[in-house]
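# step 3/5: fold
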Amino acid sequence: MTSRTLNQGPQREINTRDIRTSSDPDLAGSYDAMLRAARSAEDIAIRTNTSILVSVDGKDVELTAADLVNRQKETSGSIEKRVRNVYADLEFPDADQMLRKAYLVSKISDLILSNGLDDAGTASLLGISKISLSKILKGQFRDVSEDVLSSYLMQVQKARAC
């Protein structure tokens, strides 16, 4: 491995308890999501011939694309292939609905970005607070109905047409 250890800041005590043992089902299930995110980051780094920063045995290490290819060869088959719905992976009872809601939020976010809308103006357009909009765009939309999100999408689309 042609990696180098990077400068680390001050050491802080961290909780070393296995996240999969959490009593919070969302937190416990996030382990699989983190594995997928890590694998995705590695795949992108390989495709773009970019180094990434990872933690190896508690140390921050920079791995080159070549290192990542070798690492994937060594661990191939150790990461279980999962379904395409992260909410199903996390065993949410409403996984299909959550995926649809995530899609709606993604479209809302895309329109906000592509139209150069600001958060305050968008929140005002939707009749919600800027904080509520921020939470929704960050994925905290479990308590927001699919119908409400659809309505938000239509409102942002109409604003785009004006």
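# step 4/5: annotate
Residues 84 and 99 are 10 Å apart (CA to CA).
# step 5/5: archive (pending)
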